[in-house]
Specification:
Blueprint lengths: L11 H12 L19 H12 L2 H12 L16 H8 L2 E4 L6 H8 L4 E6 L2 H19 L3 H21 L1 H4 L6 E11 L6 E4 L4 E6 L5 E12 L2 E8 L10 E4 L2 E4 L2 E4 L5 E2 L4 E2 L16 H17 L5 H5 L3 E12 L2 E6 L2 H17 L34 H27 L4 H25 L1 E5 L21 E4 L9 H19 L5 E6 L13 E6 L9 H4 L1 H10 L2 E3 L2 E3 L4 H4 E3 L7 E3 L3 H4 L9 H10 L7 H18 E11 L4 H14 L2 E10 L3 H7 L6 E9 L4 E3 H21 L6 H15 L4 E3 L4 H23 L8 H12 L5 E5 L2 E5 L5 E3 H11 L3 H6 L3 E4 L2 E4 L9 H14 L13 H14 L2 H14 L2 H15 L5 H12 L10
Parallel strand pairs: 1-2, 1-18, 2-17, 18-23, 26-27
Antiparallel strand pairs: 3-4, 3-13, 3-16, 5-6, 6-7, 8-9, 9-10, 11-12, 13-14, 15-16, 19-20, 21-22, 23-25, 24-25, 28-29, 30-32, 31-32
Helix pairs in contact: 1-2, 2-3, 2-5, 6-13, 6-14, 7-12, 7-13, 7-14, 11-12, 12-13, 13-14, 13-16, 20-21, 21-25, 23-24, 23-25, 24-25, 25-27, 25-32, 26-27, 26-32, 29-30, 30-32, 30-33, 32-33
């Protein structure tokens, strides 16, 4: 029996819309602020997919929206799902597995839905600890009536740690009481004049717009040469003017009240190997690896290590060619930031901290583990000599972190002692101490993410963090946040964030009867699930060019290991989660080996492509990993293991963070060829904000393809027969979707594609045997053909359009862009129309469908090259007014080198259509009819353009400017009834 998720009634577009809303600033789940993690699928998408998988079609049509709260005025995840009594028992018998659980969106929603048994698996210790914090600990606490107490104790012991830190004489003298954040950089000795010059990547300190559109804050730095030192002058327009009105800011030029200010340009551009001395104005020598600044930083990192090893003196270190330098101090005054220049005395505090670190050198709480030196595709600071994790922090930051580690460890012991004194048994007291300490450890993770020499100051007044998106980059305006301030990323603020996060999770899962299990295991084998069987597996497997998780999350791992372990005889020993940080050699972990880093142990096993990883491990230990073939093999093993763990009548649902054909190749290879599964259905769910998705209008959206897999791939299929059946199935699915009013968008294309693949993958063998690449290529072509034919039929067009028109229609359907309105932070955001974008791979498959290749589409001005992508040449107005659309059409004709005075020379019906759209806006009906009759007699393309207009009129959404143009054409020709309004 088919599930609601597999039916044309599943509201994928609505789920996608709500998912995008969830990813916006005000819609994000509270616990996402706990700590940064790369992939976190929207909770409403996870909830919808679970519910859609478990409901039959009829029940789904009646109850899906109510159960999921998809129609909530709030962001849906802020309300718990409503499970009818008749479904509670059924849900309680379901076993659900997520073998790539990440930050736990899918299992969390399964718990909220009361799924009987929820198993979340993670491969990396860092993610495993985070999953414990998101899923297992809150559930354990709620079941024992300890939810509120846990929140209070995280607050209590977070405050205890802070108070002890304030009392520490080593720390007390390093911070100003009233400073929230220090902004620093590197100063380099100029090889020409011999003086030190700071390298400033951005002189802006504050550039903040208010709701009214005016600027609330405009503050910047200016360098002033004073003897041997560059001092910093602060220009704060808020102190001179009210900057909320009549202020024009263009790049670095500000005009206000008739005066003009110029903000200095950065004196460093690392990408171009350019750095300029602020004393003598000379450019530092060298390029690339021989760039003076890069070599100076490499030298600094070597001499720093020599100093800590007592090989050189502090004075010798201070004479390095480059050294850390503070520029500005920011204080919180009346809930706003005030900036003042840092002085040389502030720099001296960094050196004092370094002297104290020297006395601690060799302490196991200093993370001296190696950074994976091969991973320069995402840890870009490696080339500057940052080869050990402790080097990513200035001396004060590092000393503070080490002190916090020791205090968190001490807090954990005190919590355990306190609970035992209150009469708790040893096991429960230990578990509770582990719980509280876990959140303190995560608060530390967030703190060092926001306070390092690679966390950038952001003029929006919200500091950037170290692990920004896909890597760790070199920055030239870094942040050093006081742990005592109430400021983004500070210890004080992070403890409040832990409280808010915990409250959200506890409220979400309160009353759930689910049992929860978190496992540290490899998805290619899942040895800890031997003998288990699941009704439903929903997961987000890795993709080819995924984040280097093992390497990047070591930034967290090396600190988590310390806060959650103990120290004996100056060595780390197991305490909490020993399985995450030590290889236990017996059941009690009385004998063990420390896992120094994730990259050394887990990177060779990770499922992703990395040329650096491949070269390193092949050379060092002779292991083949990180190649394309290795990726395909491991992904295939993971799918095969999932299939083995799924009941015969069960279902596997995979997110996949790409919609392009190469992603489908990887999926079909793994799911069908390796695991013997068949595709049943597919849709697209947005994973970015609504603004970004619709504004881009790309085929490869910031979205995930959701694919339903089932068992039952068997028998032999003859390719020609299979293709015919596949096309018929695609047509059927598109027709079914259109009959119930499904929008013509990327999801309709995915329904068509899933229909094709459902037939291909229903056979275990094809004759003649063809490659998966060929299957995907044929599938895209057939899916597009079915989609376009269905649209032709809907538009009342009986005969096929010419290849250029067919290609244009297909591209308009799958790259839908348009003007949208999205609620965000209580106000409407206008999203302007942007042209559709398509990657070259998809365009080449489009060529298979339309029998014309990409080069011909470009030559005939259907597509245009835009960097690595292709852009659909369509009108791009500023708004949907007739004046704006007319201007956009005029610009389009000019861009396509079409002479409006010679329409008889137009070569394609697409060109003719754009000309007619323009004239339909400019002329009266009588004038237009007369013009059209004349053009039609001289150029057949104008008759074809009318059929194209009929198709686009029914296919496009109301907010597409061409919908308006086509409607006007058909109105003038009295044809509007042929297709009607959508």
């Amino acid at each position: 029996m088919s599930s609601f998720l597999e039916s044309p009634h599943f509201p994928a577009s609505k789920v996608s819309e709500e998912s995008a809303r969830e990813k916006e600033g005000g819609g994000r789940p509270d616990h996402w602020e706990m700590v940064f993690w790369w992939t976190r699928k929207p909770l409403i998408s996870a909830r919808s997919i679970i519910v859609g998988s478990l409901l039959d079609v009829e029940r789904g049509k009646k109850e899906f929206t109510r159960i999921t709260k998809l129609d909530s005025e709030k962001t849906p995840h802020r309300e718990n799902p409503v499970i009818p009594p008749s479904l509670k028992e059924r849900f309680s018998k379901i076993r659900l597995l997520d073998p790539f659980a990440g930050f736990g969106s899918i299992p969390l929603e399964a718990i909220r839905l009361g799924i009987g048994e929820v198993v979340a698996v993670e491969f990396l210790p860092t993610a495993y600890v985070f999953l414990k914090a998101v899923l297992e600990i809150p559930k354990w606490a709620v079941e024992r009536g300890l939810g509120r107490r846990l929140i209070e104790d995280v607050k209590k012991w977070g405050k205890w740690v802070l108070e002890r830190l304030k009392e520490d004489p080593d720390i007390k003298e390093l911070y100003d009481e009233d400073v929230a954040v220090y902004i620093g950089t590197w100063e380099v000795r100029c090889p020409f004049c011999g003086r030190y010059t700071p390298l400033i990547g951005n002189y802006w300190l504050a550039r903040v717009k208010g709701r009214s559109g005016g600027y609330e804050r405009l503050v910047w730095m200016e360098p002033v040469s004073v003897g041997e030192r560059i001092e910093i002058k602060i220009i704060d327009l808020n102190k001179e003017f009210s900057t909320k009105k009549q202020t024009k800011v263009s790049e670095n030029v500000i005009k206000i009240n008739g005066r003009e200010y110029i903000v200095p340009e950065a004196n460093i551009d690392a990408r171009s190997s350019l750095a300029r001395c602020l004393h003598c104005n000379r450019i530092m020598p060298g390029k690339g690896d021989h760039w003076y600044v890069k070599q100076a930083l490499q030298e600094w990192n070597k001499t720093l290590e020599k100093y800590l090893n007592r090989e050189i003196s502090l004075e010798e270190l201070k004479q390095s060619s480059v050294r850390p330098r503070l520029l500005v101090k920011a204080k919180i005054v009346n809930n706003d930031l005030e900036f003042e220049p840092a002085k040389s005395e502030d720099d001296e505090r960094l050196w004092k901290a370094l002297e104290k670190l020297k006395t601690l050198w060799g302490d196991p709480d200093i993370p001296a583990e190696s950074v994976p030196i091969y991973e320069n595709r995402s840890i870009w600071v490696i080339v500057y000599g940052f080869d050990k994790w402790y080097k990513l922090f200035n001396p004060r930051q590092l000393l503070t972190l080490v002190k916090l580690v020791k205090l968190i460890r001490e807090a954990g012991k005190k919590i355990e002692e306190e609970k035992q004194k209150q009469g708790w048994n040893r096991e429960e007291a230990f578990k509770y101490a582990e719980a509280v300490t876990t959140y303190l450890a995560i608060a530390l993770s967030k703190y060092h993410d926001y306070s390092s020499v690679v966390s950038v100051w952001n003029p929006s007044l919200i500091p950037g963090h170290t692990i920004t998106f896909r890597g760790i980059a070199m920055v030239w305006n870094w942040t050093d946040i006081s742990p005592f301030a109430s400021f983004t990323g500070s210890w004080t603020r992070n403890i409040k964030t832990m409280e808010t996060s915990l409250k959200y999770i506890i409220d979400s899962i309160f009353g759930s009867s689910s049992s929860v299990k978190i496992l540290l295991d490899d998805a290619t084998s899942l040895e800890k699930l031997a003998g288990a069987r699941f009704d439903l597996i929903i997961t987000d497997p890795p993709y080819r060019d995924d984040v280097a998780y093992a390497e990047l999350s070591d930034f967290y791992y090396v600190w988590l290991k310390r806060t959650l372990s103990d120290v004996k005889s100056n060595t780390l020993v197991p305490r909490f989660y020993p399985e995450a940080f030590f290889e236990c050699l017996d059941d009690r972990c009385s004998s063990y080996i420390e896992i120094r880093t994730q990259w050394e142990k887990y990177a060779p096993l990770e499922i992703s492509v990395s040329s650096g990883r491949a070269d390193f491990f092949k050379k060092v230990i002779g292991v083949e990993t990180g190649s394309d073939e290795d990726f395909k093999e491991k992904l295939g093993k993971a799918f095969k293991r999932m299939a083995e763990l799924t009941r015969d009548d069960g279902m596997i649902v995979t997110y996949y963070a790409h919609t392009d054909p190469s992603a489908w190749e990887a999926l079909v290879e793994a799911g069908w060829r390796k695991a013997g599964l068949r595709v049943s259905a597919a849709c697209v769910i947005a994973t970015e904000s609504k603004q970004r998705v619709t504004a881009r209008g790309k085929v490869a959206l910031d979205a995930s393809v959701v694919v339903v897999w089932k068992k039952g791939s068997e028998g032999i299929g003859f390719v020609q027969e299979v293709e015919n059946k596949a096309f018929e199935e695609a047509l059927k699915r598109v027709d079914e979707a259109l009959k119930i009013g499904s929008p013509l968008d990327i999801n309709l294309f995915l329904k068509s594609l899933a229909g094709v693949l459902s037939v291909y993958t229903s056979y275990s063998k094809l004759v003649p045997d063809i490659s998966v690449k060929e299957i995907v290529k044929n599938s895209f072509s057939l899916a597009l053909k079915a989609l376009v034919e269905a649209v032709y039929k809907r538009g009342g067009v009986e005969k096929p359009l010419d290849p250029y028109s067919s290609a244009y229609v297909a591209l308009k359907l799958v790259t839908r862009a348009g003007e949208e309105k999205a609620k965000a932070r209580g106000r409407e955001l206008k999203i302007e129309f942007r042209r559709g974008r398509v990657d070259k791979t998809f365009a080449s498959l489009l060529g298979v469908f339309s029998n014309i290749n990409v080069d011909i589409l470009i030559a005939n001005k259907i597509l245009a090259k835009k960097g690595d992508e292709l852009e659909l040449l369509e009108p791009e107005p500023d708004s949907l007014t007739e004046q704006s659309i007319r201007r956009a059409l005029e610009n389009l004709l000019h861009e396509k080198n079409l002479d409006p005075s010679k329409p008889e020379n137009f070569k394609t019906a697409v060109d003719a259509l754009h000309y007619l759209e323009l004239k339909a806006i400019q002329l009266t009906s009588d004038q237009f009819k007369k013009l059209f009759e004349d053009l039609r007699s001289r150029n057949l393309r104008f008759s074809e353009a009318i059929d194209l207009a009929k198709v686009l009129h029914v296919a496009l959404p109301d907010n597409d400017p061409e919908k308006i143009g086509c409607k006007r054409i058909l109105q003038h020709l009295n044809m509007i009834s042929l297709g009607g309004l959508r």
